[in-house]
């Protein structure tokens, strides 16, 4: 007996077509199901058309352009997007906007042009992908909704037979119930987009309602629309080549290196610097960055509190001159105040900058200022994801954490589990003087010092005293001021 | 009527509605043209899909009045004469 032809038994359930959206492919275990239909529904302004365009513009195996049917937006305005992305005329656009002035005389109206024009365009271009953008417009434009549903179903059936991968978008109109019947019948994958407002900041989220025959993420995923497209949280892995080594990264402060076991912080891992305000967190972070730049390592410093100029000036007056590194491009300072946008937008911004410049050291200063922007769980999972992604790429991540004065030096983030090295800074009152102190709370796999050392901020940078007079071993866990004070005597 | 009526009817196959549309348009045209010539061209878009694309035909049957101006579009089976006359802006002789 002859066996079936190989192309007849392709496994359509497993095959995927990339969505063109950062992060969505991994949530859908690969992308939109190939040879099947996906429906995205969402209120107007939620970015549906953008999903359609990004999918349509994806590189095709056979390099065939997609057919893009628009029921709502004019082909001219779509073409404007394409031009802005440097892809003019990349798509075959079918203008199927219902004419609002079209009059009806009698009955028996069908959408006879729908399938005829689509199949004609597909045959002409050899397209394997089809976008039906805002098909719900048909329901509000033609009286006979039953007929519209029938004609649409015919299109979906035909696409399935032809093995086209379809992305159809629809609004959340009052006619939606009608469209729903259609959706359950035709779509193998359904995605819902919503807009939510938290703390006065608007966030778009998407949610996979169903995806037949495969595992998919079930949470609500925040996403961001930016000039290059759409990015999704969780951030997706990217392949990028960064020249990093897993070796230690000297901090630029000899005594601190010694405290950390002799060589500095772990390269390609995550370090947290915690302390109250004015303890020198940012300066220490910048000192490490400065040292990295001097060794020819590229660094990015994200500040959520200061402007770039402030950061340059402040560090300069403390003996850390960043200007040469900024000039050579070894260092980038990105300033965006915490309140400017939501947590997701911050993280996506950071991620995109990192992908663009591919640094080997990244600082988030202070990461704690982002906690006001969302709930703690979202914050922690986002930061953990970011740090594991960066570490996976061999990037050294340094975060600073502002500890409120009344917190008695207890970390509010409870981030111990997500960092490899944890440097703690604090202020002590001693002989009517404020004294800055530094100690290593933990450093995985390193023989760290258990000293509490005095740290000075001088015009020549951070200086850590070789050994503080009184604060000697054995070290006791310092929980409050009175204990540490008694250590001094 | 001095100017001949020129209509283009787009259908998607010979459906019952398409049959009715052709008959109804013929009846109305012959009535209002008073025995003068008129043109009713029928385009089956199943056979000529590119013509459907060129004219952006979505619904069928669609009739386009090419002459006399102004150009008009109308959909349906044209079973209601008064709607056709108004919709296509065809003035009957008094």
**Number of DSSP strand runs of chain A:** 23
Helix content bin of chain A = 25-40%
Tell me the Rg of chain A in angstroms.
29 Å
Enumerate the spans of chain B where pLDDT stays under 50 for 5 or more consecutive residues. Answer: none
- Integer tally of domains of chain A: 2
Strand coverage percent of chain B: 25-35%
Question: Any idea what the radius of gyration of chain B is?
Answer: 13 Å
The shape of chain B is globular
CATH topology of chain B: Glutaredoxin
- Give the overall form of chain A: elongated
Our measurement of the CA-to-CA distance between the termini of chain A, rounded to an integer number of angstroms, reads 95 Å
| Domain count of chain B | 1
Major beta sheet of chain B, specifics? Answer: 4 strands, mixed
CATH architecture of the largest domain in chain A: 3-Layer(aba) Sandwich
What proportion of the residues of chain B is helical, as a percent range? 25-40%
Q: What would your notes on this structure say?
A:
The complex is a heterodimer of chains A (489) and B (94). Chain A has 489 residues and is an alpha/beta fold. Chain A folds into 2 domains: 14-237, Rossmann fold (3-Layer(aba) Sandwich); 248-483, P-loop containing nucleotide triphosphate hydrolases (Rossmann fold), CATH 3.40.50.300. Chain A has helices spanning 24-27, 48-56, 75-84, 112-125, 137-141, 145-162, 176-186, 254-259, 281-294, 308-317, 323-328, 343-357, 376-392, 481-488; strands at 16-17, 32-33, 37-42, 67-70, 92-95, 103-104, 129-133, 165-170, 189-198, 201-211, 220-226, 229-232, 248-249, 265-266, 270-275, 299-303, 331-335, 361-365, 396-402, 421-430, 433-443, 453-458, 461-464. The radius of gyration of chain A is 29 Å and the shape is elongated. Chain B is of the alpha+beta class and 94 residues long. Chain B has a single domain, classed as Glutaredoxin (3-Layer(aba) Sandwich), CATH 3.40.30.10. Helices cover 32% and strands 26% of the residues of chain B. Chain B is built from 3 helices and 4 strands, in the order βαβαββα. Chain B has helices at 16-32, 49-54, 81-87, and strands at 5-11, 38-44, 62-67, 72-75. In chain B, strands 2-1-3-4 form a 4-stranded mixed sheet. In chain B, a hairpin with a 4-residue loop joins strand 3 and strand 4 (72-75). At the A-B interface, strand 6 and helix 4 of A face helix 1, helix 2, strand 4 and helix 3 of B.
